[in-house]
Fold these 3 entries.
Entry 1:
Amino acid sequence: MSESKNRVLVTGATSGIGEALVYKYAQSDIVTACGRNQDKLAEFESRGVSSSRFDMTDKQQVFDAAEKLEAHDIIILNAGVCEYIDNANKFDSALFERVIQANLIATGYCLEAFIPKIKKGGQLVIVSSSASFLPLPRAQAYGASKAALSYLTRVMQVELKDIDVTLVHPGFVETPLTNKNDFPMPCLVSVEQAAERIYEGVSKRKNEVHFPKRFTLFLKLFSLLPFNVWLPLAKRIKR
């Protein structure tokens, strides 16, 4: 990182990992916090953090917000949702569409609108999930959206010129989204720990940041094995 202050934009900034990233970067950089929660954005403003209010799933709002931005050194696309399909035999296509729209299609809107706002030599950071490593129970929508997001990011790493791209694969992080989970979350970390890991990885311009490694390496290992090794374990988790 340059010793001068970077301009950093964070989407999904009004809660969870995004909020922690705003406070982390605001210690040394100039931050634009993006989200829909006006009260939280006003709180950021009161602390000297610029804000931009828009809904990522609304393409016009994304483009209108981008038009008002100056060039940034780092853009972090973090916003997303998590919903589960509880009964695969009664597939919920409306839920599936909502999650794909919020996690994947909306990211596409942001890529089109915000890539021109990244300085030459700057960085694009996309937050996916370690759920993309393996098929997990109830994660038809969430896992599919994050697997597609990871693939999309990898292609952007191949294709983008003059911009470094970091793909983030968090494990379980204690956020308002995961607080709704009704199942054990091994190796759970705090949002502050997650923000620190992401900050460190982006500072080093890593291609991938995944954490906590004692959890993500376990998933990566099983992803390398034949699927019939993982299948009975996944079914056991479901039960």
Entry 2:
Amino acid sequence: MKKSKCLAVIPARGGSKGLLHKNIRLLNLKPLINYTIEAALNSHYIDEVVVSTDSEEIARVAKSAGAEVPFIRPVELATDQAASIDVLKHAVLYYEQEENTSFEHIMLLQPTSPLRNAHDIDEAYQLFINNEGDSLQSITVTDTHPYLLREWTCGKLEPYLKEKADNLRRQDLSEMYILNGAIYIVKRDLLMIQNTMTGSNNYGYLMPQERSVDIDNELDLKWAEFLIQISK
């Protein structure tokens, strides 16, 4: 079996409740998925870029952008309930069983993170390799600290964190980070044998907020387009 280092999987389901045809909606005159395909193809470390989709239309757009689309994703992996880990495992099994190719590392690149670039991918991968990580996720600073969160039930407001911490000022709160959904890296065996994407030696790659936009609705799309325009 041929052995390669890194397989990048771009999951792009045809159905989307929040934003119709989200993965191929035009963002600054270019299909949304193309941004992720181009970033992956420009990486120095990715050996294969594959789009996993159940849509022939998305497959056509992805192929024209340079990605491999060697299969159409099974119906059972194209529902709202389908887990990303199962989509990744399906892609890995395809390459091992049909292409006789195995990959040491699997990278998940969601097409809804169009502002993540090849430099981010390469830096994240270098961090993962240099620290001999089991897994890695990209993160960004969040403006919402858990201390500020509230539960609202029948009009009654209660702190989400039950520990007593009265009168803390915002500037006294520690900096917190949130997964931005742009880059996930995991060792093949951790994914396929242990059925997880997070190992004990897990790392975070910090990205700036302006490249951490996650497209979920029309407002996100407009915000990303604005950020693209002002960065020119």
Entry 3:
Amino acid sequence: MTTVQAPPSASEVLDRCRELVRPALERAVGGLHPWVAEMAAYSFGWCEVGGAPAAAPGGKGVRQALAVLGAEAAGADGRAGVPAAVAVELVHAFSLLHDDIMDGDGTRRRRPAVWKAYGTGPAVLAGDALFALAVETLACAPQGPGAVRLLSAALADLVRGQADDLLFAARPGTGPERVTPEEYRAMVEGKTGALLGCAVALGAALGGASEATVTALEQAGRQLGIAFQLVDDVLGIWGDPAVTGKPAGGDLRERKMTFPVLVALGSPAAHRLPGLLGRPGRAAEAAALIEAVGGREAALAEARAHTATARELLTGLPLAAGATGDLLGLLDHLVSREL
């Protein structure tokens, strides 16, 4: 009797890709100035302040996994996508270092953010070094010039998205000047979707995929990024603190204009919401009001729509079957986590 082996879980796929990429990522970081390398290692959870080894919580490794799977989807060995995985992971770390400074967030993954642990100036320097190292990593890879162009285009979109995000925070929550859900969606595609799309596209390009396949994979990754952020928006209001590592309703106390909030602000039935946002002790009331007027369901419906688009793009491409299954499993995992 033939035993059919179950496909790997999304967690197993993420673990496999992290194990494949980490030695190259460590080598790249180890080539930096020792002090900068320590800050980078701290940001990845590899060490404490001062350099003592640590096993602190790191990121999920989504972007590096997408790069590896992009190469495998093109029919290549996953190792072909490792330079892409290292580059996008370095860019992601760079963006987090600078984001935390811009947003004033003092904590990252249950530890002091790099700027809190080392100072603002050193954290900016470390971010700059990671950015430069990402470009160097790709420039030295096969098909380097084309890969660098892909990364540069994604970075331009990421910066545009980050700029809009900062500007949105200064706009009023009500009236004709308020941020619309459509504007927010476009911002998220740049700030979050661009790098996810770049990750899978870079992996596929280094794996020898055609230009048409690379473009389609990049679009699928962008759709995944939008869905991923929308789910994060829901978790930022209604998520379990034991799972998210953030206090319940934290986004509401910080007056973050996330998708559920923006949808609710457009409803006349939520006229009390602006007075609740940012008020001590009123987060639970604000969350209940947002849910009552449909903000939570609208965000989840939007996430499902972008997930469906990503799935259609992936299943319509001539990709290696095993890698396609892993990509689809990862897609489902990321947009259904802890909801």
